[in-house]
Write a structure and sequence with these properties.
alpha/beta; 7-stranded mixed beta sheet; elongated; 584 residues; 21 helices; 4-stranded antiparallel beta sheet
């Protein structure tokens, strides 16, 4: 069939065993039914082929019994029996294809939902070595390769069963198999044209849904911080699942259209062949019954032989894709078992006495940092020095190496600290809204908010005038060519989410980088005034932000941190700077 080597037997065996373990009990039952139907399809197809014998050569008998091959029947009756067998074969094959389509579609949906839910719940430390592109690949294209491999296994199963049954029938009818000639080679071209228009529409919609799925996966580590800080893990899973369900429908519909086109062709072929042999018998006798039957039996195998190469190629692609999928499925879960109470998360000031985190490689020590609701803390320092890692720890999304803190006069550990700051909001310069409109974006953060509350938040961040110029108002699309929001406007929109959220802890990691200096100060001042019960932490390279900050935490090039308050003109070097061994 092809000169390319097949997958290593051990690897294919491991892949098959792993695929079986990922199937649910219901899917295993459907797979068993699929195997039984495939056997039925192969048997009825071969039987229908053998039933041509009494049509092309009346009176010819085969060692199969006298019920189906009664020489005394009329040609019309034999043609009717043949047509009934062909219709049964076509319907069984159609039903088998529909069942296979359901299996493939549901299997793909299950793989996507499971690995997405696992990544959403995984600790950030386990994703530290994963690039955004790899995660997006696991969630989208990688799973598609596995689904194609699963579908290839189905095709190989059908090919094997059909080949075994057809060759068995062919040997039973006539030994000289090499003399037969395939008669149905052109059906593949006809099948490709059946339901072409609808199949084209379904394929285009499939591409659109796949693009939407990519938006759900782009720059996932920073997006995940944003989702978790708003406590929207379940909403994210539901939205992702809805798109995955549409992809399931699109994939299933493509396979169903292919099966339906095949059904139409085979029904026409059944009637056409039956009529042809009736006419051949009436007008001219043909004494080639066994040979024609063998040719038809072997001709049925040609499409499967042609698709075997592609199936093995898909298996070769699916094996490493499935290994990568399993690696992400083995990630631990960092999501708490129960949501914290409001009383826990709305406590007063937190005093971090000492904290050590890594990265950076030699460690960063922070001490004597007081987080007070209603106050703004500015974190500054050169790029790549550990600011984002510090923000992750302060957000409770990454555990530090050491941690000692107090709530009032009572010591707390990092787990309790995480509970207190869990009602939070994280916004980064790399997070972009993925919703369709301004309203959808704001309601994602505050589902119960009224239109007046949405407009008030937009006024606070200076986005109200921009929407006033749009005829769609709150329903203005974010990325349409006629109403696309700029980078700075998108950042303002995310800050409006924070205002609506009213978090206990808000972390803005370069969240105003797309604004000019004056606009940055104005927006941050408005956010601060609206969030009087919020600990506001801002990461910025602009020194002007210090004018509105209540305290500044600066990370020096030697990884020594200094905390300076507005009412404390002398900076305090952190009690736990970088160790001497780390400095050396």
């Amino acid at each position: 069939m092809s000169g390319e080597p097949s997958p290593a037997p051990d690897r294919v065996h491991d892949l098959l065993r792993s695929l079986v373990r990922t199937l649910t009990h219901a899917e295993l039952a459907e797979t068993a039914a699929y195997v039984v139907l495939s056997l039925g399809v192969a048997f009825t197809g071969s039987l229908a082929t053998v039933l041509l014998v009494p049509l092309v050569q009346p009176g010819h008998t085969l060692p199969f019994g006298s019920v189906l091959f009664d020489a005394g029947r009329s040609v019309e009756m034999q043609a009717a029996i043949f047509a009934a067998a062909m219709v049964t074969f076509a319907l069984l094959r159609w039903q088998t294809a529909r069942l296979g389509a359901r299996l493939v579609g549901r299997y793909g949906m299950s793989l996507r939902r499971r690995v997405h839910a696992r990544v959403v719940d995984a600790p950030l430390s386990s994703l530290a070595d994963s690039t955004s592109a790899e995660i997006a690949n696991v969630l989208i294209h990688n799973v598609e390769l596995i689904v194609q491999g699963f579908n290839a296994l189905q095709q190989l199963l059908i090919a094997g069963v059909t080949a075994a049954v057809s060759i068995g029938f062919a040997f039973w009818v006539s030994p000289p198999l090499m003399l037969a000639a395939p008669l149905l080679a052109g059906l593949g071209l006809l099948a490709s044209r059946a339901y072409g228009r609808e199949q084209s529409l379904v394929s285009r919609q499939y591409v659109v849904d796949m693009t939407r799925l990519f938006w759900h996966s782009e720059d996932f580590p920073r997006r995940l911080r944003h989702i978790r800080s708003f406590g929207k893990e379940d909403v994210e899973k539901e939205s992702y699942g809805a798109i995955s369900a549409r992809l399931c429908h699109g994939y299933r519909r493509q396979l169903e259209l292919l099966a339906s086109g095949r059904l139409v062709l085979e029904l026409l072929a059944a009637a056409g062949i039956a009529a042809l042999f009736v006419l051949a018998h009436r007008w001219r006798g043909i004494d080639q019954a066994s040979l024609i039957a063998v040719c038809l039996l072997l001709g049925r195998l040609l499409p499967y032989l042609m698709s075997t190469r592609q199936s093995f190629q898909q298996l070769r692609s699916a094996a490493p894709a499935f290994e990568l999928w399993q690696r992400y499925m083995h990630l631990d879960s960092a999501r708490p078992s129960a949501a914290p109470s409001h009383a826990t998360t709305s406590a007063g000031a937190l005093h971090i006495e000492r904290m050590r985190l890594m990265p950076p490689a030699c460690g960063l020590d922070v001490g004597d940092l007081v987080l007070v609701p209603g106050e703004l803390t500015l974190i500054s320092g050169d790029s790549g020095i550990g600011k984002s890692s510090l923000v992750d720890v302060l957000a409770g999304m990454m555990a530090p190496v050491t941690f000692a803190a107090r709530a009032g006069e009572r010591p707390i550990d990092f787990e309790e600290y995480c509970e207190r700051v869990r009602h939070g909001a994280y916004v980064s310069q790399n997070v972009r809204p993925w919703q369709h409109s301004v309203r959808e974006c704001l309601l994602w953060a505050a589902p119960e908010a009224t239109d007046e509350m949405l407009r008030s938040a937009l006024r606070d961040v200076g986005l109200d005038k921009r929407l006033a110029s749009s005829k769609h108002g709150l329903d203005t699309a974010l990325y349409n060519s006629s109403s696309r929001l700029s980078g700075g406007e998108l950042q303002r929109l995310l800050l409006a989410q924070v205002i609506l959220r009213q978090p206990f802890l808000a972390l803005l990691d370069e969240a105003t980088s797309a604004l000019d200096a004056a606009a940055e100060i104005a927006v941050l001042s408005a956010v601060k005034s609206r969030l009087r019960q919020t600990v506001l932490i801002v990461v910025s390279h602009r020194s002007g932000v210090a004018a509105i900050a209540d305290q500044c935490l600066t990370i020096g090039n030697d990884l020594v941190t200094m905390v300076k308050g507005q009412r404390d003109p002398s900076p305090r070097e952190a009690s736990f700077g970088v160790s001497n061994r780390a400095k050396s």
